[in-house]
Design brief:
This protein is of the alpha/beta class and 283 residues long. β5, α6 and β6 form a beta-alpha-beta unit.
């Protein structure tokens, strides 16, 4: 029975094991069963799915996932949580716990070992390492169906916004190149132990079968994007010509912008993903 989402049960487990919450791992445990079930629902987890959970913590979300998924692989970096997970997940025979760093796990091999099944990633992510984990998953070319994660609300907003907004940036463009992002739930701080200082959101990233734009050199395009937003207050022509890794002159950028029908004074925050792809190809 998935009972860990109840606050009293979570507190009971923490006391039983005299567990000290580790700030270095960004540990905030969910204590709202409705939110836990909502995550599983929005991740569209079913009996045919192989789910990878990142940072199971005490196992509260893992229990809910195990009741819906065919198989769950829970990757937990904190070895002090492993004995707790052995207890809280004892009745779930479709769960495997790995005491590993998710950034070092070969998920392609994991998929291959399970009959080349595509993965669904579901997690309440540590906020301090959200971007490296999400981008690592997207860039790895691991066979993924979707990524449904709890993240800081501000980060979720940045993932899904478009040009011309203050939150739009390199993360927005990178996520949207690989996936369709959709915020599916907002979660207040009182749903966690301990309470974080910020609001949270659940965002679902549904992987594209093919990128939404064509570009000759992905790495080159993302280098342009990083340079553009590294100096976002400057015009795009100045930002790119001042970036040593890009190796272009202001005149070259201005000429390329003209060919795209864009002003030489435009800033990076005004360009769409398609326009960045076009600029990359021209340069």
């Amino acid at each position: 029975m998935a009972d860990l989402g109840m606050p009293q049960k979570t507190i009971e487990i923490l006391k039983k094991y005299d567990f000290r919450i580790q700030k270095k791992y960004g540990q905030n445990f969910l204590i709202d069963p409705h939110v836990l079930e909502r995550i599983v629902t929005e991740a569209q987890v079913g009996p045919e799915d192989l789910v990878v959970e990142i940072g199971p913590g005490l196992g509260s979300l893992t229990q809910h996932l195990a009741e819906h998924a065919g198989e769950v692989v829970a990757v937990e970096i904190d070895r002090n949580l492993i004995p707790i997970l052995e207890e809280t997940l004892a009745e779930y025979h479709n769960v495997t716990v790995l005491n590993e760093d998710i950034l070092k796990v070969d998920l392609t091999k994991l998929s291959h070992d399970h009959g080349d099944r595509p993965l669904k990633v579901v997690a309440n992510l540590p906020y301090y390492i959200t971007t490296p984990i999400v981008m690592g998953l997207l860039e790895s070319r691991v066979p993924l169906k979707s990524i449904t994660v709890m993240v800081q609300k501000e980060v979720a907003d940045r993932m899904q916004v478009g040009p011309g907004t203050k939150d739009y940036g390199a993360l927005s463009l990178a996520v949207q190149y690989y996936a369709k992002p959709e915020i599916v739930a907002n979660v207040p701080p009182n749903c966690f132990i301990p309470r974080p200082n910020v609001g949270s959101a659940v965002i679902r990233l549904t992987l594209h079968e093919a990128p939404p734009v064509r570009v000759r050199d992905e790495k080159r395009m993302f280098a342009l994007i990083r340079a553009a937003f590294g100096q976002r207050r400057k015009t795009l022509a100045n930002a790119l010509s001042n970036a040593p890794e890009i190796r272009v002159s202001r005149e070259q950028v201005t000429k390329a912008l003209g060919e795209l029908g864009l002003s030489e004074t435009i800033r990076g925050e005004a360009l769409t993903l398609e326009q960045f792809a076009g600029l990359s190809d021209l340069l």
